[in-house]
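Subgroup meeting minutes
Present: P.N., E.W., G.H.
Scribe: E.W.

1. P.N. recapped why we're keeping a running log of single-chain structure predictions: easier to compare across weeks, and new members can see raw inputs and outputs side by side.
2. G.H. added today's entry (240 aa).
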Amino acid sequence: MGDSTVWGSVPRLMAPESEPLERVLTRLLASEPGLPPVEALNRGQDNDTIQRLLSDRYATDIVGLPEAPDFIFIRYGINDCYYLAHFPEDYLKTYHELIARLRKDYPLARIILETIIPYHGDPAKTDEVNTCIRQIAKEEGLSVCDTHAVYAAAIQDDPDRLCYRKIAMAAIPENLRGRIPLKAIMGDDVFILDTSLDGRLGHLPGWTDDRYPNPEGYQVIGRGLAAFLKTLAECLTKDC
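Output recorded in log:
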């Protein structure tokens, strides 16, 4: 459950052959010996916040699944910290409300909170959100999957490697537009999901301003989730 960094609408649209997050996770867990079959469901949505989830789609997208989930991962905060009038007070309140509703609707599910990925231009804002997440987890007695740490380690040497490039076609000089693949154009914007045109277009203002994960970014996130679940499964087996 989460926002656009969970759902990944642009890679789904621009590179339908790539693996979305839920397929990455399902594949990785299927390759682990000794684990039962896993089906991962993605309930992320673009531009979502916990408040919007609770007031809008919770009743249709979260409640009433064909089978009750064994594990529920929650990654919210990137949008919440901008849209909420009183952050972090309202964020903490709505997060606790979401957990209470999930416990009521899925009492046997293990709820796991995720830290948000490095996204904001101000790292202090990301740290503030993740501090809140850890506080909530402590108060609720829940585990934290540190997706931020996994993602940050993957971009340590190249901060732009895992984000896609979005730029208005009008911002690209006419003599360079012939370099743009037709499949990368959507409306008035160009989306490049890797570093292939950085050498030619990387000098343009705003080329890497969007920090949303590209397909490789979702591979990194999926590997982090799979490793967390594998460790958790081993811990449950040993009753640790």
